[in-house]
Design a protein that fits this description.
about 260 residues; mainly alpha; about 0% strand; single chain
Length: about 260
Amino acid sequence: MLISSGALVGFAIGLTGVGGGSLMTPILLLFNYPVAIAIGTDLLYASITKASGMVFHHRRGHVDWKTTGLLAAGSIPVSIIINVFIIDESLNDNASFSTFLGSFLGVMLILTALVMIFNRLIQRRLSNEESIKDKNYYRFLRKHRSVLVLILGIVLGICVTLSSVGAGAFGAAILFMLFPSWPTKHVVGTDIAHAVPLTFVAGLGYVSNGLVDYSLLLALVIGSLPGIYLGTRLGSVLPEKLLRTVLIIALLCLGLYFSFSRLH
């Protein structure tokens, strides 16, 4: 069942580019894994599955490494701080904090779904250059973009470390708002390049506290590799709008469930 779950999530990643943390952690919780174990294992799973995507985009020149470095300068230190001072082995027995993590995960799933709903609208509006100039949007970005990217890194560091969600559609959507002239492939490539070290460092924090299930991680990776391959092949022939709609509905339902249910 776990290998099949890995294949399902890998298939979703291959089809839509979204689904790693957004789907895997909720699925593990539905299998009754402790919240901290699910998040920690999924963080390492995400770093492994996204690594090949980072190499792919780097070779094709889709990664802006300066922006990636700025994002990491915000996210990595925050992730380390959270892991040192908040995450520890007692989380497995801490019902109240597990409930908080589950609720936080639910909120991030809902935000990711909303971002996916409005992402195309945001892209269309930001691509209207005259409209942006009238609002002095470009002028504001030129003056404050580096600081905004650093702040985004901090926010992603918090979200990803506490929920394993945020380094995909959520981060990419904000990057597009900060770099409206970038082609989509550059936004996606930079987002993935940042996600790999962030999820790896955050995952190492869970490893150091004994909150990663390695047999579970192996099963997920074994299942996801053929799933990603198949999803990538079928992504060019299946209707993208339908696939995104199904994924959005799934994220909303899972988000509402984990936001309002008490996890033990």
